[in-house]
């Protein structure tokens, strides 16, 4: 049995791992976009990789397992089918629904980019356009992928091949997210492998806590927060209430929250709903400016049975998770732009979370010079993005070709991060007996974080830790 690390090796994004077992049976675990590829002009990384980077024949893959919907785990599935894969994708029902939303949105963006390049008469742009048309997936490839998804229930062993079964275990982090445990029987020996996916944190809005994983022989563990603890110790309600009070109540200001549409926005809206419904919070106008967030919120409501007890009880009492007084989903671009003329204190939640693309760029551009505006960053921002530049205190920013002074206040909280921190990661590994765990492989993190996490694991008795390089293969 061989395990190859084809993505998210010594970096955060692009999760993709190839497991090869007897009878030449090949399983791909995740097939994510590498969001850390940056272009030479410092602009945003492309929605999908600029070139096909599959170091294998797509038609030779027998099965794909998907831990969760985020594009750094799912974003290259359409490319896999375009290159000849004809098999199934196994994931949970909510992961299926959320992945379809994300991939369709990416395909729409890809089509727009190609259309824009087609309209150009410049030869160098035409050459780039021809290359992009060969590399970017469109809606038909998304359909090919989604038509082959087989939803799998949590905590049920599913036989996928002779001597091979898989189990999806709740991971928190995002609705439908799973740790995947694979049991392999070959040459008279049983071996078990766990792919952590992204590890959630306890007491996160809406989501159940990560479930324990049974003892395995090999553990592939994410390490996004391998060298960090969450900075904010208060609850999401307390942290958000404090910011709103200072930015929209004490002064008649405007609060802009860049937020990913799938997962993060739902946690925000649910927390706001609780503030207004249970804590007599002043009903400040809230705008959610993302059609994708609207579709994702419907998926959350449809899967209420998979949310935590607090959310289920709240829904039963209030009959809504995300709808409350003075709340509006902005459907059209026209409605989005019209918010600039709203003169009362308000909260605007818009994507993308890194302030790179999406409608939030318009809101930032319209308010960056307003000293009565606060921009609240609530998640990770890749280096070079507008969000990263805001967090690093640049005095001016160029948005849509126009340089502007940053007069708005920029703040950050991490209570809405869906990732477990270093202590959560250590506790996840410690579920495995140190004397029987053969190997821990660290993935999905910055190298410095992985090295610090490896050292922390060594201090608690786990010395069998590897940090694979991209393309490295291990015999298990």
TrEMBL record:
Top-level taxon in the UniProt lineage: Bacteria
InterPro entries recorded: Beta_Casp, MBL, Metallo-B-lactamas, RibonucZ/Hydroxyglut_hydro, RMMBL
Organism encoding this protein: Rudanella paleaurantiibacter
Residues of the Beta-Casp domain: 265-390
Entry keyword set: Hydrolase
Protein name, as recorded: MBL fold metallo-hydrolase
Signal sequence segment: none
Phylogenetic lineage: Bacteria, Pseudomonadati, Bacteroidota, Cytophagia, Cytophagales
Recorded GO MF terms: hydrolase activity; RNA endonuclease activity
Pfam family, one: RMMBL
Stretches assigned to the Metallo-beta-lactamase domain: 13-260
């Amino acid at each position: 049995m061989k395990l190859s690390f084809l993505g998210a090796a010594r970096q955060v994004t692009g999760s993709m791992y190839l497991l090869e077992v007897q009878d030449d049976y090949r399983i791909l675990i995740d097939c994510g976009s590498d969001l850390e590829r940056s272009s030479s002009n410092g602009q945003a990384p492309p929605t999908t990789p600029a070139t096909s980077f599959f170091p294998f024949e797509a038609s030779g893959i027998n099965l794909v397992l998907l831990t969760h919907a985020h594009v750094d785990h799912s974003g290259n599935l359409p490319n896999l089918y375009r290159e000849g894969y004809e098999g199934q994708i196994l994931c949970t029902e909510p992961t299926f629904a959320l992945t379809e939303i994300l991939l369709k949105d990416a395909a729409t963006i890809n089509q727009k980019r190609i259309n824009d390049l087609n309209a150009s008469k410049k030869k160098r742009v035409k050459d780039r356009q021809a290359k992009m048309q060969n590399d970017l997936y469109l809606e038909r490839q998304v359909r090919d992928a989604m038509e082959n998804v087989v939803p799998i229930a949590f905590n049920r062993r599913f036989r996928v091949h002779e001597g091979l079964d898989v189990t999806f275990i709740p991971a928190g982090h995002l609705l439908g997210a799973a740790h995947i445990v694979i049991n392999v029987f070959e040459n008279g020996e049983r071996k078990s492998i766990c792919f952590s996916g992204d590890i959630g944190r306890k007491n996160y809005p809406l989501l159940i806590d990560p479930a324990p994983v049974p003892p395995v022989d090999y553990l592939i563990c994410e390490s996004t927060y391998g060298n960090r603890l969450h900075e904010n110790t208060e609850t999401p309600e307390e942290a958000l209430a404090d910011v709103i009070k200072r930015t929209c109540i004490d002064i008649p200001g405007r609060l802009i929250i860049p937020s990913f549409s799938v997962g993060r926005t739902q946690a925000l809206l649910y927390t706001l709903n609780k503030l207004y419904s249970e804590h007599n919070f002043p009903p400040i106008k809230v705008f959610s400016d993302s059609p994708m967030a609207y579709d994702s919120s419907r998926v959350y409501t449809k899967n209420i049975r998979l949310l935590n007890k607090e959310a289920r009880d709240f829904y039963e009492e209030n009959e809504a998770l995300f709808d409350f007084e003075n709340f509006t989903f902005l459907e059209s671009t026209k409605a989005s732009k019209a918010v600039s003329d709203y003169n009362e204190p308000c909260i605007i939640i818009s994507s993308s979370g890194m302030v790179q693309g999406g409608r939030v760029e318009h809101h930032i551009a319209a308010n960056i010079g307003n000293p009565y505006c606060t921009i609240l960053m609530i998640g990770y921002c890749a280096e070079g993005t507008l969000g990263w530049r805001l967090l690093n205190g640049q005095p001016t920013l160029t948005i849509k070709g126009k340089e502007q002074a940053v007069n708005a206040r920029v703040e950050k909280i991490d209570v809405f991060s869906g990732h477990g921190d270093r202590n959560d990661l250590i506790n996840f590994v410690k579920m495995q007996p140190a004397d029987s765990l053969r190997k821990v492989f660290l993935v999905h993190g910055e190298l410095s974080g992985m090295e610090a996490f490896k050292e922390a694991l060594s201090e608690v008795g786990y010395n069998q830790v590897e940090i694979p390089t991209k393309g490295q293969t291990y015999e298990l």
